[in-house]
Amino acid sequence: MNVESFNLDHRAVAAPYVRLADRKQLPAGDVIVKYDVRFTQPNVAHLEMPTVHSLEHLFAEHSRNHSDAVLDFSPMGCQTGFYLMLQDDPAYEDVLALVEATLRDVVRATEVPAANEVQCGWGANHSLNGAQEAASVFLSARGVWSQVFGEVAPGEASAADLAARDAAAREAAARDAALTGEPVRWAAPNEPALPGTTPDADGSTNR
Ligand code: ZN
């Protein structure tokens, strides 16, 4: 299909992660890259819209204090993450550093920028708390952002990193459930998410 993400098996990824989704060279030679910044496990958990909206505002504003390369930060319609577009194809580790620095700003923020009727199309539809909780969960898995797919080769990620990602996935699912009143549906991030999958009664994983 034409769209890069339509050719991605969303059951195979292990959120949270940061993935290079596209790299395009323009006719004049300039390069633009697009990163998939995935907060929650696709088809398992999602962010509520006020959280998505406030993360969009906060990231869009604060990221530009750290980098002139930011072109855009836009939410995915599935509410599981964002696309970060940058110019000049910066090094992957620099992209991770930008995301980390920006999300640390988000956690410290005292307001959502431009959350009003003059500067936004739905100024009332925001949640600073939601954005900060989602940012904290994402930051807690910093060590595994580069691990996009579920199959982890020995030595690629530490047990502590994997535990952090498990915890992040659980927290995201639980947060969504608390907000929506729906039951928690959670699958171990290293396994394909199956519709209707439920956690074990004791909350343990099957890894
Ligand atoms: Zn807005």
Q: How does the SSE layout of this entry go?
A:
Elements: E1 17-25, E2 31-38, H1 49-63, E3 70-75, E4 81-87, H2 92-108, H3 128-140, H4 159-180
Antiparallel strand pairs: 1-2, 2-4, 3-4
Helix pairs in contact: 1-2, 1-3, 2-3, 3-4
The protein binds zinc ion.
Structural notes for this entry:
The protein has 207 residues and is of the alpha+beta class. It has one domain: Gyrase A, domain 2. The protein is built from 4 helices and 4 strands, in the order ββαββααα. A 4-stranded antiparallel sheet has the order 1-2-4-3, with helices on one face. β1 and β2 (31-38) form a beta hairpin. α1 packs across α3, α2 crosses α3 (128-140) and α3 runs antiparallel to α4 (159-180). The longest helix has 22 residues, at 159-180. The relative contact order is 0.17. Residues 182-207 have low confidence and may be disordered. Bound molecules: zinc ion (ZN). Zinc ion binds next to α1.
Shape: globular
Average per-residue pLDDT, rounded, comes to 85
CATH superfamily annotation: S-ribosylhomocysteinase (LuxS)
CATH class category label: Alpha Beta
The number of helical segments is 4
The N- to C-terminal Cα distance equals 33 Å
Tell me the number of strands. 4
SS class: alpha+beta
Contiguous runs where pLDDT drops below 50 for at least 5 residues: 182-207
Spatial order of strands in the largest sheet: 1-2-4-3
Q: What helical percentage do the residues reach?
A: 25-40%
Instruction: Please indicate the percent range of residues in DSSP E strands (runs of 2 or more).
Output: 5-15%
Query: What's the architecture in CATH terms?
Result: 2-Layer Sandwich
Bound molecules: zinc ion
Q: How many whole angstroms does the radius of gyration measure?
A: 17 Å
Total tally of structural domains: 1
